[in-house]
Amino acid sequence: MGRAGHPNVGGALSLNLCLVPIINPVHGDRIFTTSIHNLDNDSLLNIFYLCRPNVFDESEDRDNRVIRGGGWGREVWWYKLVQVSRRWRYLILDSAAYLRLCLVCTRGTPVADMLAHSPPFPLIIDFDDPNQDLTAEDEEGIMIALRYRDRVRCIHLGVPIQSLEKIVTVMDDEFPVLEYMHIAPPSKHCTHLILPPKFEAPQLRHIVLYHFASPIGSPLLASAVGLSTLLLRWIHPSTYPHPNHLLQNLSLLPQLQTLQIGFRSPSPNSNIRREVSLKWIITHVTLPNLRWFAFAGVSEYLEALLAHITTPLLVTLKVHFFHQLSFPVPSLQQFMTITENLRFSIARFCFHDGGVAVWIYPRSETTMFSFYVHVLCEHFDWQVSSMAQIFDDLRAVFPTVVDLTIDYTQHTLSSEWHNQADRTLWRKLLGSFMNVKTLRVHEGLVRELSRSLRLDGEPALQLLPELKELVCPTGNHSDETFSQFIREREVAGRPINLIGSAFPVGRVNYVVHSPAGMAQIRPDHVPVP
């Protein structure tokens, strides 16, 4: 194709589209083939339209392109097609708006040359490789492209902070056709990036910003009233916006479908409580189109938000908490109760050496969770305490959960003193799922759970009264593991079927980075949502 990213330089393309099937209009069951060059312009144009990236998989497009920021390089799909023949070239270029043709500025692109010798199509600025420094030529190419602000449709930058600070200053103006912006410097210690005061983009639909001082209140958000995606990640705690200020700005964005607010490190709950008390929260926001909401920070801030937000169509709620001694979440419980589209059937816990995570799914056949909570905490006993507190507050939300998995990975960072959790904490946690019929226990937690399920004088049906199956790596009923619990249930007329099966059964054993940009574990049989 010649020099990278230049649609006008290069040789002819040899295609495999020489023959296409044609159904005879009279004999519809007979299929003939013809050369693609014999097709009329409308048929050719339909084929070209289908060549556009992500036509068939809108969910992949949202996940990879919108949230992760990837896939923009595929917008060069038409570069080679215009070199096949003069007819194809004129047909494609004359249909530029219909085909949404763009010029892609990326690493190695001779931007000045491309802009001087190409049609005035919208521009995609796509530089995202945190493992490489920008060359002087590439940095200059970004600056040149940004000067064509009336043509920039997409900005995707994952470049070193030294370059990014210079680049952002060039954006201090209106970008009238900008639809997508994803800016993520590779180091999370860079927290003082600020959006230029005159930067506006009225057509903006998707914003993903890492490590910026809080953009809440920026003219950008005030002008982008049609925003569908707003992901603000790793905001420094010194720039925590007051909840009322954040709510006021969210009230201007009724088209939001995806929202994430993530802070880089905790600000003590007492500080948040003091800030909230100094100024009453008087704004209540309804986000009628919000379907996905994620938060990372401390519980006090989330509680202040959720008490004043209504999201009638929400189907996914994702929460990351920093380690706290206590987790009162009454507003979270109320919010989940009144949000009708949040459905719960299957719960999977994973205790690992960096924290504890829970996925709750609406049904068995789906790979997309409806609720996810992750607490960053190293010690095992603190992990159990955190989850016991959270789910004790949320117990009214989960009467429909019938399948519960308790998974575990080795806690290499915990001392022996922290490797056991108090029995009452386990019972409080399990008591949040009163209608569970199947319980799966990882072999690393069999001793913990069997000790906690011993009745010691309590009624046999006080805990997990509907339980019918217990899946764990044991042999049979003659084993001592869970034996007292099983005998007591038989005496009470509610026998339990003990299934001696080792994991993996919903096993979770490694850490990845989620699309939301925060550490997340995931089940190795479930794709990352």
In terms of quaternary structure, what is this? single chain
| Helix share, percent | 25-40%
Q: Which overall shape is indicated by the principal axes computed on the Cα atoms?
A: elongated
Q: What gyration radius follows from the Cα positions, in whole Å?
A: 28 Å
> How much beta, percentage-wise?
15-25%
Mean pLDDT: 81
The order of strands across the largest sheet is: 3-4-5-6-7-8-9-11-13-16-15-14-17-18-19-20
Low-confidence stretches: 9-20, 55-61, 505-529
User: If helices are DSSP runs of H or I spanning 4 or more residues, what is the number of helices?
Assistant: 16
User: How widely separated are the two ends?
Assistant: 36 Å
Determine the structural class based on helices, strands and strand pairing.
alpha/beta
Total number of strands: 22
Task: Write up this protein.
The protein is of the alpha/beta class and 529 residues long. The chain has a domain of 224 residues. Helix content is 26%, strand content 21%. A 16-stranded mixed beta sheet has the order 3-4-5-6-7-8-9-11-13-16-15-14-17-18-19-20, with helices on one face.
